[in-house]
Specification:
By secondary structure, the chain is an alpha+beta fold. Helix content is about 60%, strand content about 15%.
């Protein structure tokens, strides 16, 4: 992807970060600094880096599932709006598309449950506003964020994961073109 920087290779997949990602880091640093000074700014940057670590793992979920069907993933690019795993081709069979699409959100489910275990099973889901407050501990923010990532990614809008899942479910009955339009 243009305007992206190569940061390394993991499992044979090139990992890239779009340059605009650094604008996001700067924005969050300033926003958190305004709420609580330098400690809050550092905490905000750490939160964003960990959040995008979760996004990267989500994209690797897609890549690993695709690899099970012989589909290579040349690269994953992190953008301010999320991540993109560039598959060399789309899965041919609806069930394969379903598996590849659901794999990313399932990674976030596993992360959320892992964080819930770290918290002793006592996650506070009373308010999503807690995500943006530097006073909220980092583990709680990451837990809530991963729950939001699961819900957002499962929205049935193509090309989101939920849209791909819906297309995979509708393709056997309507064909790929009509299922995509639905």
């Amino acid at each position: 992807m243009r305007w992206s920087i190569r940061v390394g290779k993991i499992l044979g997949i090139e990992v890239r970060i779009h340059v605009t990602f650094f604008l996001l880091l700067a924005f969050f640093a300033m926003a958190f600094h305004a709420q609580g000074g330098m400690p809050a700014a550092i905490d905000g940057v750490i939160y964003i880096l960990l959040l995008f670590g979760c996004v990267l793992l989500h994209e690797f979920g897609h890549a690993i599932a695709a690899k099970a069907y012989g589909i290579r993933t040349p690269d994953i690019t992190l953008l301010p709006i999320g991540g993109v795993a560039r598959l060399e081709r789309m899965p041919e069979k609806p069930f394969q598309e379903f598996v590849v699409a659901i794999a990313g959100p399932l990674v976030n489910v596993v992360i959320a449950f892992g964080l819930l275990l770290v918290m002793g099973g006592r996650g506070d889901f009373t308010s999503l506003e807690r995500i943006q407050h530097p006073q909220t501990d980092l583990v709680t923010r990451l837990l809530l964020t991963n729950v939001v990532l699961v819900v957002f990614n499962l929205l049935p809008a193509f090309p989101m994961d939920g849209g791909r899942i819906l297309r995979a479910a509708l393709t056997p009955a309507f064909g790929a073109l009509k299922a995509t339009r639905a």
